[in-house]
């Protein structure tokens, strides 16, 4: 018995069994690493497909973003006009119903200062809007690029630096014989909140046909027809009016001034 145990141990030691030599166990083959020839990267066709998808998405999103920006600027403009009309109502409440005073004279509908006759920058903007004219009295649309307090050729007291703004004040009383009314009916009296018909606008974006170019909310003196105008009304509303729903109300022979058509 002892000799058998010794033999068995020896056989086990040297890798032999009764059936013959016993080969050492071999470890299972290691997992095969990635083959450099595998096509794991994008193919040219796949890249072109991705580029095409991105192009389609951009073509959809960019116009939407552009439209959103246009609407945001219109909303800002409407907010300004609504603020101006509210201040006009406050002015009227303190002056027996009269809106900000602008005497008759040879001036245009967007004039705020006319020599010694009136100065709405002082009597209206600073007192009732409690700010400076450049902060509130200029349309923020594309029009601002052509008509702003620092516009080349229009600076200073005689230009948009003090005399003009880019909002029309429809409480307008030009001197007799200065310019021509273009309305089918007599121009409405908007001097007071008592006599004025509330269907009419009191303030609006400067909208002018200069007969060679337009000035409007979205037209910085270009030949392109405007899209429309923001206006705030005596009934308290403020809204955008499309160009097809606008008409000229006055001209000074060199240019026609527009406002919304009202029924």
Computed CA radius of gyration, to the nearest angstrom: 40 Å
SSE topology string:
HEEHEEHHEEEEEEEEEE
Strand order of the largest sheet: 6-13-14-8-9-10
Helical segment count: 4
Low-confidence stretches: 1-17
Give the CA-CA distance, first to last residue: 127 Å
Q: Give the integer mean of the pLDDT values.
A: 86
Beta-strand residue percentage: 15-25%
| Biggest sheet descriptor | 6 strands, antiparallel
Shape: elongated
Structure, explained:
The structure is a single chain. The chain is of the alpha+beta class and 263 residues long. It has one domain (67-260). The protein is 30% helix and 19% strand. The chain has four helices and 14 strands. It has helices at 2-14, 44-94, 120-129, 133-136; strands at 16-17, 20-21, 113-114, 118-119, 167-169, 180-181, 201-205, 208-209, 214-216, 219-222, 228-233, 238-242, 246-251, 256-260. It has a six-stranded antiparallel beta sheet with strand order 6-13-14-8-9-10, with no helix packed on it. A four-stranded antiparallel beta sheet has the order 5-7-11-12, covered by helices on one side. A two-stranded antiparallel ribbon has the order 1-2. Strand 9 (214-216) and strand 10 form a beta hairpin. The chain is elongated and about 80 Å long.
Keywords:
single chain; four-stranded antiparallel β-sheet; alpha+beta; 4 helices; 14 strands
Helix and strand layout, with pairings?
Blueprint: H1 2-14, E1 16-17, E2 20-21, H2 44-94, E3 113-114, E4 118-119, H3 120-129, H4 133-136, E5 167-169, E6 180-181, E7 201-205, E8 208-209, E9 214-216, E10 219-222, E11 228-233, E12 238-242, E13 246-251, E14 256-260
Antiparallel strand pairs: 1-2, 3-4, 5-7, 6-13, 7-11, 8-9, 8-14, 9-10, 11-12, 13-14
């Amino acid at each position: 018995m002892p000799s058998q145990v010794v033999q068995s141990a020896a056989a086990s030691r040297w890798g032999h069994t009764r059936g013959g030599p016993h080969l050492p166990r071999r470890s299972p083959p290691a997992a095969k690493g990635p083959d450099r020839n595998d096509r794991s990267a994008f193919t040219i066709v796949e890249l072109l497909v991705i580029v095409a998808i991105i192009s389609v998405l951009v073509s959809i999103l960019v116009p939407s973003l552009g439209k959103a920006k246009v609407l945001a600027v219109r909303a800002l403009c409407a907010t300004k006009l609504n603020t101006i009309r509210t201040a006009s109502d406050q002015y009227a409440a303190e002056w027996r119903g009269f809106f900000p005073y602008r005497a008759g004279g040879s001036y245009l509908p967007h004039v705020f200062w006319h020599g010694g006759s009136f100065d709405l920058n002082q009597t209206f903007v600073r007192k009732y809007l409690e700010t400076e004219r450049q902060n509130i009295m200029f349309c923020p649309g594309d029009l601002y690029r052509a008509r702003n307090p620092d516009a080349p050729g229009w600076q200073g007291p005689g230009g948009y630096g003090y005399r003009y703004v880019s909002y029309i004040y429809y409480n307008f009383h030009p001197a007799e014989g200065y310019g021509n009314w273009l309305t089918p009916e007599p121009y409405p009296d908007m001097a007071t909140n008592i006599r004025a018909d509330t269907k009419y606008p009191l303030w609006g974006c400067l909208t002018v046909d200069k007969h060679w170019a337009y000035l409007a909310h979205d037209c910085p003196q270009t030949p392109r027809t405007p899209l429309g105008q923001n206006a705030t009304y005596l009934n308290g509303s403020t809204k955008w009016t499309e160009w097809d729903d606008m008409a000229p109300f006055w001209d000074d022979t060199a240019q026609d001034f527009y406002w919304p058509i009202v029924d």
